[in-house]
Structures are given as structure tokens and as C-alpha cells.
Amino acid sequence: MKRFTSKLLRESLNIQYKAMHSSNSCKNLCSVLRRCLVEEPDIEKIEEQTVSVRSIDDDPEMTITTKIHGTPRHYHRRKTDTLMHTLKRMRINLTQPHHGKKKLKKSMKTLPTEIEGLYYPDDVKIEVRSYCSAEKVPLDTETSNQDAWKEQNVLIIGEEMFKIRVNAPTVVAIDIPKHLMVGFPVVPSLELEFGKREDAKFLWFRGRTVKNAKKVDMVATAKENSMCCELNMAWEFLANTFKYTPSVSDIGYKLKFICIPRNRDAFGFSQEVISEASVGAGPGACPFEERHLYTMKKTETPNALRVVSYNILADIYADTEFARENMYPYCSPYAIAFDYRGQLILKEIIGYNSDILCLQECDLKVFLNFLHPAMKEEGFEGSFLRKGGEMPEGEAIFYRKARFTELKKSNVIISEALYQNCNRDMLNALEEHPSVLESLKKRTAVGQVIALKDISRDRVLCILNTHLYFRPEATNIRLLQMAVLLNHFRVFIDDIKGQFAEKVVEVAPLICGDFNSTPKLAVIEYLTSGKICNNHSVWTQKNEEEDCKLDLQHDFEFFSACGYPRFTNYVVGFKDTLDYIVADSRHFRVESCVPFPDEEFLQLHTALPSVTVPSDHLALVCDLVWLD
To answer: CA 142, CA 467: separation in Å to the nearest integer?
Structure first.
């Protein structure tokens, strides 16, 4: 991501457009900006009349940012330093193009007009004074920065006055993917401070080099070079949304994304990013696009419920040297990077038009900066549960806000849930098998539990989303993990029922996840049969720990809503089903399941992930019907 504390980006709302004032495309762009910000203050004018100050109580330093003539300049100063030193540094930056014109090409006698206009005369007045002062007396230059850069004061440069704004909403980092493809949503990476994404304004443009554009001699600094390069770009307005999906007409164009941060009525400095590459045609036919033919419409009746469960392959596992060389050597490096995979994942999950979406192996940063803002634009709300320990990935649940409202969450780390009252009998039994107990306590798996109230009916959907321990030989540990979760889930459901004691409300359980268990293993038998006896072979199979023989049971009537497909995980050396949507037959029946891709299609690129499939797992998609 491009961070503005380390790399300067120009603000295109001023200098580049003034330099291109004769360009019709530029005039059109400026007018679009005004229309997109209808009934909003003049953002360009605010920026040109403001000094932004970042000052945190516990931080001994402060950052002073000006945006004069469209060019942001940052001054990192100690709060205890004097105003004199700060103003001296400002004078150097505002009057001298990087300490003089000695870096100009030898053939150039003067700076180009577009660059010369960025700087003030050497003798320009620069001072700070009180905004309310009638005498217009500047502050003593021995005043500390902490006392000088306050909102009741102003910065004076020549005849111009700049209001000081402390901790205004700020774009800390901004970026867009390197690969831009027709039909695949582009979601910017955006980090804000003192502001919220939902309050900000966003603008998208497309642009390409104008033929026969006036050439500007270059100055030997990256900042001015990039300005001059952008002078030859013609920009056309596209959208004012957070994400943008390129169309065929965008092929060959670069994209520009502008964020104008805002917090209530306060605006911060806008920032922009321009794509490194132009929009391209994309990877060709993706298997999920054929699956989308079955989910072109949202569910249309109150009793219909479309559920998706998907292990999206965490970036922390995929984009590593070990994964590239040993796990997925058949997948092109660019296709395994989340910069590319993320666009495929988003297009895929949006196209399923689900009511409920459960994800496993979701990176925290992916949820916060990518999926959550993108899915909010699609009408979803979501929550994330990080795995135990230091794992930066976990589970995520999204639900369509037009269908459900959230009642309650009860998320657990399985190793901690073992000590709940509902699991006391199991814990007492496991204490006689210390190696098994110790192994169970070490695992980081979690259970994400949420209750959603159906807006149109007196019923509640309780969802458990989980990803069980992965080692193949640890079937007994996975079974115990599921038993712990089901006991916790039962208590949660009973508590929800208790909230509606005076009213008849249906409370239906639903489980989604990657159980790391094939259909014939004990975890699936336990879920669908309701019990595992102490003489079951799972307790005597070759496990990592000593034999541990327990009786396990539950009172749900679960079944696998998608049946038992040939595979949901497809990698070299392993092709089988590990992922499930589990519903209760007392509450649901299956209307339909979206077919899985043909194996021939997956073999085109050896295995998964690939340039057309973003994960090593396949999504499960089914339409359930509530039983009256």
C-alpha cells in the first residue's frame, strides 16, 4: 500500500487540471467532481485553505501537513521543538524546488511553468498567528509546536491564510490491485485515521495518455516527474462508489481512485492512486461462472434460504515461498497472490446471491479492508472471529440485511469452551487421558456462533461456523472439537429460545465449515447419527495420543445439505470432501444444490488454486426451504 508518510502523491483536483485547462476532458472531469459532491462544500477550496495537524496525546511528535497548489507536504516535528524551526523547514520546501534549481537539466535555463507555479518567492512571509487576533500579530517563534499548531490559530503564507485543523480525517494508506480485469470487482485497499470508510466520498476515473500532448521538460525529482507525466493523461469519470467493476470499454485504460475522507461535517485532504497497469481482458472462463447460472436471482420467497460455505484459502498460507514451491508449484505466482485472487473470490461470492455466507481461512486484514466494505455495498453485514493464539486468520459470517437482523453472538475458542459447564463431563473424562487433553488444549480452532432474527417471520436462525484441526491422523481431536462445539451450540440455542418464552418462535440450527473430515470419518457420523459409542474404532485408530474412549451424543437431527460430493478440496495428492453445510431436518429441507465443476475443468490447470479458481477448496451452495 502507498503510505503518505513515506511517499508523496499529488492531488489531481488542482495543479494538473489547471495545467490542462484547455483540455475538454479535464473540464468535464472537474465538473463531474462538483456534481458528485453535490450539496457538499468545495473540497478543493477547503484543501487549499487548510493545514492538517496530527497530534496524539501520548506521542511526543506531531505531523503537520499542507496541501498548497495541490501538492501535499509533511513536516514531522517534535511537540517541544520551537515554531521557528518548523517555519524554517517550511520556507525551504515552499520556496526552493528541492534546494535550488541546480538539478535542472543543463539545457534548461528556467523551471517549466507547470513546476515554477508550485513554489513561492524566497522572501515570502510565513508565520502563525491567532485566528481571533485583531492585531494580526504573529506568534512568538519560540512558542512550542504543541502550543502553536492549534485550531484557534492560522498559518499565513504571503497573503494567504490557512486554517489549522487538528486530527482531521486522514487517508493513511491507499492502493488498488495490480491486475485489473473486465468483469472482476476492484476493491481499493484503504486505511483511514480519524474517519470512517462509510462517511468518506469515493471517485473512479479511467484515463490514458493523450496523443500529441504537449511535452514538458523534466526536473530530476520523482515528484515533479510524476506531475508532468500526469499532465498527458486525459481522465473520464466512471463512478462514485467504493468498489468498481471494469467493463469491456475500459480495456487499455488505467484507473484512478480518489478518496475524500470525512468525519461528520469535517473533510480531510483527498488522496488518489493510479493503477500501475491498464485494464485487461481477464483469465477466461472461470468454473464459478457456470455455477452462477443457477444463482442468477436472489431467493424470492420468505421460506427460501440460500447458504454458501467457502474456505477461501488464507493469504498467510498461500502467498509464501513454501506454498509456492511445495504446495502449489503448479499455480502461477501472480495467480496465488491475493491481489489477484481477491478479485476472483469477490466476483464468485457476489454471484451466488446468497442470504448466508460462511467463510473459513479468512485473513483478518482481508475481512477488514476488503471483504467487509465490499459486501456492505452488496447489502450484507458481517462479523469475523480470529482463531486462538497469534493466528491472523479465522472465520467470517455475512448475512443479507434485507432478510435478517442480528440478535446475539457467542463466539468461542474450542480449547476454552472445554471448561464451560456444558462440557464438564467431557473434561472430567479427558483428565484421565492427559495427552489427549493437552493436544486438544493446544489447538487454535474456534466456533463462530450467531443468532439472526428473520425480519419477515417469527423465527431465528442460529449459525455455527468452524474450521477443525487439520492433521489427517487427528480424527479423534476433530471429533472432540465438534462435540465441544455442539454442547456450546445447544446452550446458545436454548438461551435464544428463552428470550422468546412468551412467544412461539422457531429456532433453527445450521452448521457450516471445513471439518477436515471425509464423509466416512467419525466427525460426519457423529453429526448425522447423533452419537459415537466408547467402542467406536475412532478411539483405537492410530492417533497422535493415547487411546481415549468416550460416549458422545447430541439431540440435533442433522444431515449434509449438499450431500457428499466427490470433492470439495482439490490439490495434487488429495481430492476429497472436507467441507459441509449441515442442516436440521426438523427445520429445513433441500430445494437444490448448485452442481460442482467438472473435474476436467479443474485439471486444465493441474489442480487448485489456479488462474480461474481462487482457492484450493470449492464453495458449497445450496437452497434450503424452511419447514412450516
So the answer is: 61
Q: The whole model's pTM is what?
A: 0.87
**In this predicted model, which residue has the larger pLDDT, 546 or 324?**
324
Cα separation, 87 vs 94, in Å, equals 10
Task: Count Cβ atoms below 10 Å from residue 195 Cβ, excluding itself.
Answer: 23
Rounded CA gap, 328 and 572, in Å? 8
Angstrom distance (rounded) from CA 4 to CA 171: 8
Burial (Cβ within 10 Å: 0-12, 13-18, ≥19) of residue 333: exposed
Phi, psi of 309 (to 5 degrees): -125, 135
Looking only at the bridges linking them, the beta strands covering 446-454 and 569-571 are unpaired
In order of their start, the domains of the chain are 43-168 (no CATH), 287-626 (3.60.10.10)
Whether the link from the prior residue into 609 is cis, omega within 30° of 0, is yes
Q: Is 413 helix (H, G, I), strand (E, B) or coil?
A: strand
Question: Measuring CA to CA, which residue among 172, 131, 173 is closest to residue 149?
Answer: 131
| Residues, the chain | 628
State the pairing for strand pair 569-571/574-576: antiparallel
Instruction: Write down the mean pLDDT value for the chain.
Output: 88
Question: Quick one: residue 479, left, alpha or beta (phi over 0 = left, psi -120 to 50 = alpha)?
Answer: alpha
| Helices 434-442 and 475-499, axial angle in degrees (round to 10) | 70
> What residues are labeled active site?
514
Question: Is residue 219 classed as helix, strand or coil in its secondary structure?
Answer: strand
Three state DSSP letters for 310-339 = EECCCHHHHCCHHHHHHHCCCCCHHHHCHH
Please write the tens of the pLDDT for every residue from 359-407.
Answer: 999 999 999 999 999 999 999 999 999 999 889 999 999 999 999 999 9
The residue among 171, 193, 166, 194 whose CA lies nearest residue 260 is 171
- Region for 557 from its dihedrals, namely left if φ exceeds 0, alpha if ψ lies in -120 to 50, beta otherwise: beta
